[in-house]
Structure prediction request, 249 residues.
Amino acid sequence: MTNLLKIKKLSKNIYWLLSFLLVIIPIYYVGYWLFINDLPKTLITVNTLPTPLVPNELSIKLQILGFVASLFPLSALSYGLISVRKLFWYYKEGVIFTLEQVNIFKHIAKALILWMVLSVLYESAKSVLFTIGNPPGHVLLTVGVSSAELTTLIVGVVMFVIAWVMDEGRALAEEQQLTV
Amino acid sequence: MAIIVNLDVVLAKRKMKSNELAKLIGITEQNLSILKTGKAKAIRISTLDAICKHLECQPGDILEYKNFE
Prediction:
């Protein structure tokens, strides 16, 4: 089996996995906010240390607000996933080193950085929502950047560099194709 | 581009078809078409050698430089 055939086969599997994730992740977000009051505490991660005084009892209004806030990082994540899926669609078709793919790499990098920023804001919004039932003066707004967010940011920057290198590769591939 | 590929002219003089030459020199018709239409970015010495051998010509008969400035 040639390398290209192996790439095509593996890319086909990854393409379907990404398609599955694109469906399941939004469902997870909807489910998370729909059943927030019934979920075990361990599943509700809020980047705030103080425990809410009225734990896990969010009104429908707050649930909707939480869901709306979650749409921002979800959009960035979905955009990133759609881009990666598109990239693997090209790979499964045996198309490598094209200008379109270079642009996809740039889109993925942008999506990752955007996702990181929006995730921080979303977690901050969550901290307010979870402590909004507290007595006056005890409502908290926390802004935190964890190693996960930093990793996402680094990966995003690395993707930009990869896109750059890919463009060089594309130029070489194009030259190779036009060499008789 | 200032380099003109006169492969069509030489082929006509030798009364040879493109697909015939492609087969003789061992490249695809598509690649030969890239060369004929001037889209090629580079030509291998081995390809030029094979073309000259089968068309009984010199590289200068196929490639010509014209200053358009």
Summary: The mean pLDDT of chain B is 91. The radius of gyration of chain B is 11 Å. Strands of chain B lie at 3-5, 63-65. The interface with chain A takes residues 27, 31-32, 34-35, 39-44, 47 of chain B (CB under 8 Å).
